Amino acid sequence: MLKTGGIISIVGAGGKTSLMHFLSRELSKWCGPVLATTTTKVKVPDPGVFSKIFISSSIETMIREMNKSGPRIVSPHFAASGEIPDRKKMTGLSPEIIEQLRDKTPYRWIIVEADGASQKSLKAPASHEPVIPDASKWVVAVAGLDGIGKPLTDEWVFRAALFSRLTDLKMGHDITEKSLAKALVHPEGVLKGSPADSRRIVFLNKADDGTGVDTGR
To answer: Given CA atoms 58, 132, 137, 14 in this order, what sign does their dihedral have?
Structure first.
């Protein structure tokens, strides 16, 4: 399966960017050329995370520059349409452009951060979220286990009021394993908009101690 390549979209909250970086390194090491990008906005990558970063609003320019790298790309690359210097963020690409990059560049894998969460541990999506390319073969929903036991407030949950509506958990009440599970499987939860034939995976992050592991289980 890993040799086939394709588009992986990462949604949710609690470590999407870290997971994107990790998958980019590992897939690049074992499974061929990897490109990471976003359909929203991401923090400017730290130096050394990606060996090359392409920034252009022109799809033709981007494809031309990527193809100069040739098929023997040994470390992950990153692509964005522009920068927001005062926020230290990069703006993403549309799903349609990402699918063109899949078809017209050497990358075997494209990993897409397809959701925003303002660095919160959990989230519920608004009507316009997430932005998942239709060609995604895998959609990974990230959830931060450090949010369990915390109060349902905007401090811990991005769009806390929406999370409350999806789970019937009252604002200010402690977030439970049951409420998180309900949010993850809800039709209007973070996996909404996943392609019908995609494989949907939940990645429970921040299980840094025995309590976190037990909570995840």
So the answer is: positive
